[in-house]
Design brief:
Distance between the termini: 22 Å
Radius of gyration: 11 Å
Structural class: mainly beta
Largest sheet: 5 strands, mixed
Number of domains: 1
Strand content: over 45%
Number of helices: 0
Order of helices and strands: EEEEEEE
Number of strands: 7
Length: 72
């Protein structure tokens, strides 16, 4: 089970795990820049969660992102 990290420097909710989405719209929307200045391509955006977990909307699906980040 992958954990979510609360990140005070994060500007958007993000995950690289497509299976976390309950709904997703695939659309290339540019890139996000990480703290080390590397970039990840945004492949879509949607909502994550399930019946037992709070749904979070407007989450970015970012190619190659290893961690799951929730903005603080």
């Amino acid at each position: 089970m992958q954990q979510w990290y609360l990140d005070s420097g994060c500007s958007k909710h993000m995950t690289g795990d497509k299976s976390k989405f309950v709904s997703i719209t695939f659309k290339q929307e540019g890139h996000v820049t990480y703290g080390d200045n590397n970039k990840g391509r945004i492949l879509g955006r949607g909502s994550i969660g399930d019946k037992d977990i709070l749904i979070i909307h407007n989450v970015l699906f970012v190619e190659g992102l290893k961690a799951q980040l929730v903005k603080h």
